[in-house]
Design brief:
- The chain has two domains: 3-41, no CATH class; 51-279, Rossmann fold (3-Layer(aba) Sandwich).
- It is built from ten helices and 13 strands.
- It has helices spanning 3-7, 40-49, 58-63, 84-97, 115-124, 129-137, 147-157, 176-181, 188-209, 233-239, and strands at 15-18, 33-36, 73-77, 103-108, 139-143, 166-172, 212-217, 219-222, 227-230, 242-248, 254-261, 268-275, 278-279.
- Strand 8 (219-222) and strand 9 form a beta hairpin.
- The protein is globular and about 55 Å long.
- The protein binds adenosine-5'-diphosphate and magnesium ion.
Length: 280
């Protein structure tokens, strides 16, 4: 199968052979390769299929131009217990409930993945037993406890036989193990290099296969600015496409959900509640 076959909705695309170099007035002989084209209506159909993953919250979907974008990396950061993992569960459930690329890969680096929590969210949606089972069957969970395994797991996704059915990759959290295990000053450069490499692999998985990548990230105090900022510095800031933040509001279950930066989505804020149904 060539690269283009993977993207073709069917096999009836017209193929144009790119012949040998002599035929094409180029100086060097190259192996021939195939190029396919698609009609505009096929491209429109493709784009409908690859719509963002709904958050399940209409106000938030509106802010996010539909939801979590496929083909790029979305980061959600915030302080401990603010709801980052809950949000990740919610997006995972929504991807695996859908028909388009329903396999979700969940890489759990903190040991907090709970299928029961996804079942609970699905119960609120009145999902049948069989669709609940389908959703859970479509979520592949990798529990990793050191950064080398995290790197290996991401690398192994490239070789997955059913990669074309993978719609979402979650890493909860992206930075935790790197920071815990490469914590001395002398290891910081290495740590940043490895996080950078991990992000570039994720970006390539996302772009090549129209996969939404969602990573959670912790925050650290910026004493100068007197506010919480996501850890990972410029490597994270440049390595992810969309940055989202969850913040607590005056105790209770109220949460402020912010779009902090994105190349094409304006900054925005919405007030949500963290409930049994998830963030609503
Ligand atoms: N079943 C539930 N119903 C309502 N709220 C829940 C439920 N489970 C967890 N939570 C809320 O989620 C918080 C933990 O969120 P979590 O996503 O694990 O935080 P983190 O940002 O550290 O990943 C808990 O403090 C609680 O407020
Ligand atoms: Mg968490």
């Amino acid at each position: 199968m060539n690269l283009f076959d993977k993207y073709s909705p069917n096999k009836k695309n017209t193929e144009i052979r790119v012949g040998t170099v002599e035929e094409n007035f180029v100086l060097e002989e190259q192996p021939s390769r195939e190029i396919v084209f698609k009609s505009a209506s096929e491209i429109l159909e493709d784009s409908k299929l690859s719509q963002p993953i709904s958050t399940g919250v209409s106000g938030l979907n509106q802010l996010l131009h539909g939801g979590i974008e496929r083909g790029s990396i979305t980061e959600v950061f915030g302080s401990p217990t603010v709801g980052k993992s809950q949000f990740a569960f919610q997006i995972t459930k929504n991807n695996s409930l859908g028909k388009y690329k329903p396999i979700s890969i969940f890489i759990d680096t903190e040991g907090t993945f709970k299928p029961q929590r996804i079942v609970q969210m699905l119960k609120h949606q009145k999902a049948s037993q069989s669709s609940t089972k389908d959703v859970l069957d479509n979520i592949m969970v990798f529990s990793v406890s050191n950064y080398k395994d995290q790197i290996k797991v991401v690398q192994s996704i490239f070789q997955m036989p059913n990669l074309e059915n993978v719609g979402l990759i979650v890493i909860d959290s992206l930075t935790n193990l790197f920071r815990a295990q490469l914590s001395s000053k002398s290891q910081i450069i290495r740590r940043q290099q490895l996080i950078n490499l991990q992000l570039s692999k994720l970006r390539s998985l996302a772009q090549r296969n129209k996969i939404a990548v969602l990573v959670t990230n912790q925050v650290g105090m910026d004493y100068q600015a007197q506010r919480n900022i996501p850890v990972g510095g410029n490597i994270l800031a440049h390595g992810v496409t969309h940055r989202l933040q969850i913040e607590r509001m005056d105790g209770g279950n109220k949460r402020l959900f912010k779009i902090v930066s994105s190349p094409f989505i304006p900054e925005g804020v919405i007030e949500l509640r963290l409930t049994e149904q998830g963030l609503i």
